[in-house]
Every structure is written in C-alpha cells, then in structure tokens.
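Researcher: For the annotation table, I need structure tokens for Energy-converting hydrogenase B subunit EhbP. Please keep the output clean. Sequence:
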Amino acid sequence: MKMVIRPHHIISLGGYIVEWDFPYRNLIVVNPTDEHIKIEVPVFDEEWIEEHRKLGLRITPVRYEDNYLSLWKREKSKLE
C-alpha cells in the first residue's frame, strides 16, 4: 500500500509498524520538499528508513525510551 505525504508536512507511522522485533516504536516522517512523495506502508524492516531517506524525507526513529512528543516538536520546529 502507498501513502502520499504532502509538501512541508509531518506524519507519524507508529500504527504502520507491523514487526514485533522492529527496534523502534514509531517513526516521524517529514517531507521538507516542495513535492508530494509516495511512501510504502506498512514498515517491515530498518531498510525502509534508508530507502525513504533517499527520496528526500527526514525520518526520525523513536525508540522505546525516547520522548515522542519532544522529538515531534523538534521536527515540527525544523519544518517551520
């Protein structure tokens, strides 16, 4: 399945991570470009992160011990 991220938009992919042994509980995905970008969901492995960074997306993995809200706010401020 594909999802489109609008230009200068930020989303969270926690509900699209389907593997139990995935090392992150969430992914914050930022599209800083002026173009719409299609991404593949669900997320199955860590290779997904590098593949989508090559498209120009900023991806912040959220580990279990990280504060999700502070990471979201940091990415949101960079985007603005």
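Researcher: And a one-line annotation?
Model: The longest strand covers residues 26-31.
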